């Protein structure tokens, strides 16, 4: 076996006799001609068989707490390890991930060790990003460290894995990273790190980096625990034991968090509705001066509709007195409150500005909702509520105005439908079409082009039909209309919305007899949608376009090199397979260019697809010219500094396909030094082991 793939320790069966370990010489070399290609039926069958066997009784022989009971258990463990080592599925992330999930490491540690040994390109960042925040994820990380201690695997990491865990509020992984940094283990030599006191060397997380967990969909409980862990870990401050902000001196507070960080924490917590985070951490770190929020921050908070969080924060740090006396401030907050759809938030805003929302105003309109709407602009408030889809609030406002006899405030306004359409609130626009006539209220699209492009991207066919209906909005005519239709079709095609593409084409076909150049417009639109579908990986749209090209008088659209370069860079294997089946000769002629693009983008699947089932090739192969082009381009990119983030598994895959293709390339001797200058030390080491003659 190649030294890059040393065997892991074989399982030790219990009993009086122990079978000899599997000799590495009996295992096929990972770069030999006898291997199956990554996508061959043999590898698929082996992967399926391995996963199927894992659903049986898992091998207790490998368990650290149980003895073996049957020879079958021992054999299964041996077979799984052997299957993992003897295929080239080692460069397939998905298959390795499936096996890692299917085989609990406490029951099958040798399989896990074999997988991680084969996946020499794996690093701590990848393992940390794939973590599920459980004990199994930690076992994978621990196994990687164990392989590094044994010299089987080169320790590779950056702060990206740590930041990914912080963004997910994954305390289990965060604690593991900090534990590995503290733990002194001279037996592990980290790539690129010098002598230090710990295994891992990295800078502390900052509060800004920790606050990223509040931006996603992480639950409040997890965010609270992660922030609590952060302050205990870095400042030895248990926020649960702190009574209030007075427990900290200004110096201690500034050491833990800056002014902007505190304001960001308070704002995001209030917007997300995280009252526990707001009370339990945010307000304890803030002094009244630190917590002073500007109008922009308060607008975001009000627009979220979280009344209770707004009350808590306002009590601690309201808008300064000059701002509370400003009518402009009330107008901005009121419009944000209508956008939130919360009548309670509107009433709360009104009560904070009683100098403006006087008793006379409330008495005249009878409700805070109607009074604030008149102050902030009736049509703007109606538009804000409609854009958020809050039809109930719109109806409540109109009912309040009816009850107070003030419906004349509604009349002769326009409701801008752009945001309503973008958010897909069809029921709102239909309601206004019916009931707006009573008050002479019209729906208008301020920007037809950009609004409908957004709708087409979203795949909202009912909204597209509403826009196309002549009684609602007459579509533009002439050249502008043709350009808009082509753009909308391309946008819908690029996002895979076949139903919208089909709808627009049928509308165009109905107008063919009305315009002499309608056929040309359809041809242009068809070419645009094929390009968009190719570049964005939408096979379903390509299949639809093929059915259209079979219509009488229609010509088939052929691919272009630039389209396929884009799809190769983005990794759309399914599109390449589709075009290979339809236009195989064209795609084959472009393979060197496409492989080069895929190599730069680290698209393993694309490279495998383009190279097909050919297996390793040498300089005497019929495809020697093609391989020469690929390697010449690859080595040229290395020399021109265009491959700055090349992954080791990409290089390994190319070497597997062309193990002896470098002898005629003078630049091959420059590769190692170039890789070292780029900081790709692991890749340079792999190059050295594979091609010592080019060092």
Describe the structure.
The protein is mainly alpha-helical. Among the domains are: 1-121, no CATH class; 477-557; 576-694. It has 39 helices and 2 strands. A two-stranded parallel ribbon has the order 1-2. The radius of gyration is 32 Å and the shape is flat. InterPro entries: SecEffector_AnkRepeat (IPR052050). Residues 1-23 have a biased composition (Pro residues). Residues 1-38 are annotated as: Disordered.
Short characterization:
With 695 residues, this protein is mainly alpha-helical.
Average pLDDT works out at 74
| Largest β-sheet summary | 2 strands, parallel
**Global shape:** flat
Helix content: 55-70%
Strand order of the largest sheet: 1-2
Strand content: under 5%
**Total strand segments:** 2
What is the CA-based Rg, rounded? 32 Å
Q: Which stretches are poorly predicted, pLDDT < 50 over at least 5 residues?
A: 1-69, 184-197, 471-475, 613-627
> What structural category do the secondary elements indicate?
mainly alpha
Q: How many DSSP helices? A: 39
